[in-house]
Amino acid sequence: MEVIQGIQGLKVPSSEAGIDKVMWRHYPDDFRPEYSAASTWDQLRTHAATKEWSKVIWFPQTVPQFAFISWLAIKDRLTTGSRMRAWGDNQSCLFCREPDETRDHLFFACPYSFMVWIEVVGDMLRTEPDPDWDDTLQRLITHPYPRYDYILLRLCFKATIYYLWGERNERRHNNLYRTHSQLARTIERVIRSIIVSLRYYENKKLRGLIQRWFSSRQNH
């Protein structure tokens, strides 16, 4: 009955009103002639409070594949040995042979991964790196770093997670190994390439980024 009453309350179409137009709802009470997939998705999805770690993962200079793997790591959804155990597969750490390969062990309690992290992060943490996952993440969330340092720290954090996970899988599936220094050098080259791809020299807000990157390497 409510539907019928609602229909009956509508105005009867009239040629005097002009040609009908298709309008798309972008937001409540905001209808526009153009379609927006983003607005449609935003209205269909279930909204939740923004996670405090989201700024570590999603920011303008982010790299999508780094962000995705890091997001899985934060959610503890990577197929580590501890998760594979539920399927009957006992997988120890392929870096140090620790029997219990957990997310927290890989990032960065494992001696191998911690050495990679130390080399990549340089002096940007402004304190000694901590191998504890929760402490490292919480520091990135709460500490008021300078702008350039914070951009680079988040790139370092996500790139290190991404390449450590890739190295772990190379060892597991292809029996290929790199030393911690070799892997750290690879990550550093990638970050340098990312900075160049940002065309930092054309953006006043990013012009000091490459200088800060090189200065963080001086003692490493």
TrEMBL record:
Annotated Pfam families: zf-RVT (PF13966)
Any GO molecular function: RNA-directed DNA polymerase activity
Keyword Disulfide bond: no
Highest taxon above the source species: Eukaryota
Chain ranges of the Reverse transcriptase zinc-binding domain: 35-117
Keywords, sorted A to Z: Nucleotidyltransferase, RNA-directed DNA polymerase, Transferase
Keyword Transferase: yes
Name used for this protein in its record: Reverse transcriptase zinc-binding domain
Native source species: Arabidopsis thaliana x Arabidopsis arenosa
